[in-house]
Amino acid sequence: MGSGHEGGAGAPGGGEFYSPLYNPDTGAYRFLIDGEWRDSASGQLVHNANPSKGNERCFGFQACTRDEVDAAYAGAKAAQRQWGRIPLNKRASMLKAAAELMRQHHAPIADALIREIAKPKKDATTEAKRSADLIEYAAEEGCRSLAKGDMITSDSFPGAERDKLCMAHKVPLGVVLCIPPFNYPVNLAVSKIAPALIAGNACVVKPPTQGCVSALMMAQCFKKVPGIPAGLVQVVTGRGADIGDYMVEHPGANCISFTGGDTGLAVSRKARMVPVQMELGGKDACIVFPDADLDLAATAIVKGGFSYSGQRCTAVKIVVAFEEIADALVAKVEEKTRKLTVGQPEDDAQITAVVSAASADFIQGLVEDAVAKGATMRTEWRRDANLIWPCLVDDVTAEMRLCWEEPFGPVVPVVRVGTEEEALRYVNESKYGLQGCVFTRDIDRAIGIADRMETGTVQINGPPARGPDHFPFQGVKDSGIGSQGIVNSIEMMTKVKTTVINLAKPSYATA
């Protein structure tokens, strides 16, 4: 598609549609303020790396200043006041237009995802197209849910007369700060932006370093829609260490939606008294009972554990297998794991490089600790820079770090248990509680253990998954605050406003 890079940096493909994002003089991407693609007054750039190419320099983008953050919030506030007065049906039409632009211009977004985060080509294309679907659904769901309100009469309360009518309806919060993660920088940005916009809010977006350019391209799809106010979607780039806290603590933020890891714990502590939506890490357990369909379970474990090299909050991160079937299950998982292809994302390999050398080092440390304490490697340990071959680790015990810590890589540990109570330990004693899954043919047993699992979601006879995007999605403990999914996000990004009509006192009222 002609990305035309030099020294690792690259201008976007896609012709005129994406050309304003890139400054050929600096070889870097601009940020978006008040409908204009700008270079930062700082004169400084941030560069990300290509995980699949030895961490060579990939893209450069602007290191924004605090003054530019201030301008982003001020412009978003002004745009929101205009946007909030646009009829709901027209807002929905403009969001659908943005979705259509994303479909038409998805290829450069997918190319950026391949280069920035080593996402396999097929998955990168799916992320761009799925994000367009999410925008459309949010537009339609907003028309359904936001049109509803309540009419409350006063005489339902003891001692009150029928002399007041209360009209209650949902109104926008104002400006939503959206912070997506590196692993789904487009889809998880859109999952925040689309509900916020249909509800009448404006957005300030802080993309991740890895995934920044694909997020900027996503923003162009909103900017190019006729009728959308300049400044409705602002995108501020730079290192989180430099401007992240300032953006979170900024008085211009009326709501914060964050997806990521343990950084979210600090974000929640620093946020002012505004609604906070957090989706953080997970240690999603897969419990396999003796009566389970082992072929189904093994397929789900491999898919759930190794998709996008395990870099998903909903990846299977620990398998809890009952002793009676553990040997058979592990053999099936091992056989399927060995068939996974390993290589470059542009070749659509199933296992690609993890996002950074630091991440690869952390993953290796977890595996080495487990082996040193007696775990059994069912596949050979192999690593080439950021590329780690899929790793199945058996006989993991509670003394090993791999049992409790989140590898966020292509590693699936297996623990063996004898009782349901023992199985529950590996779910409920974890500091995380995002999702879990249960494999059994006994629906009563499945529902019973699901009720006892301290997680936001339990999948029965299927791997953990975030979607479909309109399903509620939430965690407990250190896995998050609040519930996501299109419907729940619209609800969280609005507040109730009431208008009370005082009527003449009824003739039958007593003095």
UniProtKB/TrEMBL annotation:
<dbReference type="InterPro" id="IPR051020">
    <property type="entry name" value="ALDH-related_metabolic_enz"/>
</dbReference>
<dbReference type="GO" id="GO:0008886">
    <property type="term" value="F:glyceraldehyde-3-phosphate dehydrogenase (NADP+) (non-phosphorylating) activity"/>
</dbReference>
<feature type="domain" description="Aldehyde dehydrogenase">
    <location>
        <begin position="37"/>
        <end position="498"/>
    </location>
</feature>
<dbReference type="InterPro" id="IPR016161">
    <property type="entry name" value="Ald_DH/histidinol_DH"/>
</dbReference>
<feature type="active site">
    <location>
        <position position="279"/>
    </location>
</feature>
<dbReference type="InterPro" id="IPR016163">
    <property type="entry name" value="Ald_DH_C"/>
</dbReference>
<protein>
    <recommendedName>
        <fullName>NADP-dependent glyceraldehyde-3-phosphate dehydrogenase</fullName>
        <ecNumber>1.2.1.9</ecNumber>
    </recommendedName>
</protein>
<keyword id="KW-0560">Oxidoreductase</keyword>
<dbReference type="GO" id="GO:0008911">
    <property type="term" value="F:lactaldehyde dehydrogenase (NAD+) activity"/>
</dbReference>
<dbReference type="Pfam" id="PF00171">
    <property type="entry name" value="Aldedh"/>
</dbReference>
<dbReference type="InterPro" id="IPR029510">
    <property type="entry name" value="Ald_DH_CS_GLU"/>
</dbReference>
<dbReference type="InterPro" id="IPR015590">
    <property type="entry name" value="Aldehyde_DH_dom"/>
</dbReference>
<dbReference type="InterPro" id="IPR016160">
    <property type="entry name" value="Ald_DH_CS_CYS"/>
</dbReference>
<comment type="similarity">
    <text>Belongs to the aldehyde dehydrogenase family.</text>
</comment>
<dbReference type="InterPro" id="IPR016162">
    <property type="entry name" value="Ald_DH_N"/>
</dbReference>
<keyword id="KW-0521">NADP</keyword>
